[in-house]
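Sequence in, structure out.
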Amino acid sequence: MISLNFMTGEDPLSLDRIRAVLTRLEDTIIFGLIERAQFGHNPRIYQKGAFKELSDLGFSGSWLEWFLKETETFHAKARSPDELPFTTGLPEPVLPPLSFPKILFPNNINANPSILSFYTRAIVPRITHRSTLALAAQKRAKGIIGDDEFEDDGNYGSSATLDIEVLQSISKRVHYGKFVSESKFMSDPAAFIPHIIKPNREALEKLITKPEVERKLLIRLQKKAATYAQDVQVHPDADLSNGIGVANGSGKLSGASAKIDVDGVVDLYESYIIPLTKEVEVDYLLHRLDGLSQDEIDALLDPSKRKAED
């Protein structure tokens, strides 16, 4: 899992540093989706109470929710400061916590329920569509027809394992919006504070939104997904003297059909990740002054006092 090292002494609120993490997370998410796309939809693993085996254990949630709880119970024993769990009632870390520098303003913002919902309802059915059609054809060839021919290939463990990897990566990507908001807020508190004192979501969103940055992000995602989704095949006689992965002009380096719906990856960001990240960023800003005295707010508005405190 991609993460920042908060103990290096580097500025954790450097936008360049944050963007580097977000860019690496793009790769993690894309590769995770490609791996998940090779299995069927397997909608049973998202249905509460669908597995008697879990009910017998006293667990009433879905197979994926059980997987999340078991996985996060283990991860919680060595919890990372920039990760939020999907489940509750987790154990405390085994080792004493490190003395991380204070970075974010205290908050309880957790968008994971929304992430889990849109991922299981909208993303998984789309990225597994090709596998589902191939599975149906195989089942029909064996005489299995009707409802039983679609969606379920029985790979519940593998599907849930990959789902968790993707979910945790998307969660980290979305909640890094808090770091973006804190960085932008501290760079110019006076621009934000009036819209926080008199809550104005629209004004705050305009302050944090960079349409050109979003446009370039989506273009980069499309190119990455299109590239990573290919099986590159190299002819034994191909000339690679110009570098690995560069064709010699003879057409001997070719790509197979895409392993994932590339437009689906872009839509994941455009329709879900980016809008939800903005919601997290604005929610964080709306609570940025909670509990502060007027003197503390005035200090934020006065650059000279702020520098003295720093």
